[in-house]
Amino acid sequence: MKPLFVGVDLGTSSVKVGLFDPSGHVVHLVRASYPLYAPQPGWAEQDPNDWWLAVTSALEQILSDVDPADVAAVGLSGQCPGHVLIAGDGTPLGRAIIWSDQRAVVEASWLAEHMSRDQAREWVGCDSVADVTQTPTRLLWIQRHQPDQWRLAQAVLQPKDFVGRLLTGQCATDHNSAYGMVNSESRLYHPQYLEFLGVDEQRLPAVLAPTDITGHVTPEAAAATHLVAGTPVVTGTIDAWCDIIGCGGTTPGQAVDAAGTSEIVALIDRRPDGGCQSDVGTAQGVFATRLLDDLCWIGGPMYAGGGTLLWWQQCFCQGSDLDNLATEAADPEPRPDDPLFLPYLRGERAPVWDIKARGAFIGLAPHHNRGHCTRAVYEGLAFAVRDILQRCQNATGIKAASLRVSGGSSRSAVWNQIKADVTGLRVQPMLVSDAGCLGAAMLAALGTKSFSDVGHAARAMVHPATEYQPRLHYEAVHNVRFDIWRKIYPALKPLFS
Predict the structure, then answer these.
(1) DSSP letter at 468?
(2) pLDDT single digits (tens) 422-460
(3) Domains in the chain and their CATH numbers?
(4) What are phi and psi of 15, to 5 degrees?
(5) Angle between helix 413-423 and 370-396 (nearest 10)
């Protein structure tokens, strides 16, 4: 019997748990959803107990028709950064603050004022960690606003690592998820930095590689999940990294668009010397970071994505489902004077890094209808992807060969075609659209030495479903429109601030 690998991908709206064979074939895949809480404007929280209930339910379902003893390993992927405070027995001390939360504005400003660039480089290997979503600002906020929880906390974990703790009894994370807390080169906590933040290292998880084994399934976890006690659990990494791996982003020049509620755009590079400085591309609004081994990716996360289209549907297209919207978007051919849409509804991360930015329609005229605006939303998101890719190419000198897409949006033929037309690249949706789940399973396979390296795993387990060619007769009009689109944010920025 061939070994089977489980991938657990803990997302924002649901967990995807998949069972895969060594060829990447989906034996069984289950999604289980859970709520998101926003008790105040700018806040975003989830209940870690909801995650665990969803994970155990999904594991029970995928293992119902197979022998659990055939599972060689479990790999973890998850939304990041998120922060779970747990008691000594693993019980969460309240809700988790998740990646999209923007409450720590004052703390981010304090860090920017009190932590110099030289200190940041020495302590964590980058220029700054003064961002409202990052772990240092969140920990400062918790200490100031939730002192009772902070006093009782025995550990601070990322979402996937909370699941790992309940599966294995061990507190561990990977060096990608520990960004902003460990030095990116040494992968160690700096004592002076922790003293500066007022954080005891004993509360922080051990830092491992994504392919290291965190621990093994405990008897208690086995009873809750139907996994066999003793099954290895591989540490895994951030969902964006797993998406890239699950799309086969393992060769230089491969571009990836993980198109979920928000999107993450990446271009793969190889740095055999081990150098993958985070400030590569900083001037372009993107960054470089290690993927696995000597592979790096340069790019960045967006707030915009499928959630933007959902906003458009719920606010202005009630009664129309997403298929109807896709039909609307495909109907009008692009023209230079059609409206343009800036998709920065909730601020934006890459490439502008401005939480005050907002969305905008530009160029509306009496002859434009809802179809034109719907297409503008699709195009605006595609322009955002092209914008990041161009900046990546400018920073590295590497030309993208094709664009592999995953996530829920990759199932839309219209959106894939628009992305091909706008970027000028061949767009390849993946056979397994839940690429983060597959990527986590691939890390499980690598962690148990089923493949020699990530390239070997990708050749065996990753397969494009089809391919969309750019329609060259639209190239000129898209180039004109993109040049105008890139001027919208700089023109409106003074109004946002």
Answers:
(1) B
(2) 999 999 999 999 999 999 999 999 999 999 999 999 999
(3) 4-241 (3.30.420.40), 248-429+467-497 (3.30.420.40)
(4) -105, 140
(5) 50
